[in-house]
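[09:14] KT: can someone run the structure on this one? pasting the chain below
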Amino acid sequence: MRIKVVTKGLAFPIRIVLPYGLLTLFASKTVLKALLKNVAEAEEIIDQLDSRVIKETVKQFKEFKGTELVSFKTKDGTELKIIL
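[09:31] RB: done, C-alpha cells below
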C-alpha cells in the first residue's frame, strides 16, 4: 500500500510505503498489544478484533494491487492518494 501527500509548503511529496507483510504483522493481536500498551482501553478493543478477518482482508488487497482507494485535491493544492 502506498500513501502520497503533496502540499505547497513542502519541497517534495511525502510518500509512505507499507508492505503487505507489515500490514499482516500488525494484524497480530500480540503485536498490537505491544505497540498500544500505553493507550487506554486499547486492549479491550484489540480483544474484539478478529485477526483472521484482517489477514484475509490484506490477502484480498494483494489481488487489487495498483487500485486507487482515495484520490483528492483541495483548493489550496494539497493532494492525497492512497493506492493498493
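[09:33] KT: thanks! Helices lie at 20-26, 29-35, 42-48, 51-63.
[09:34] RB: yep, looked fine to me
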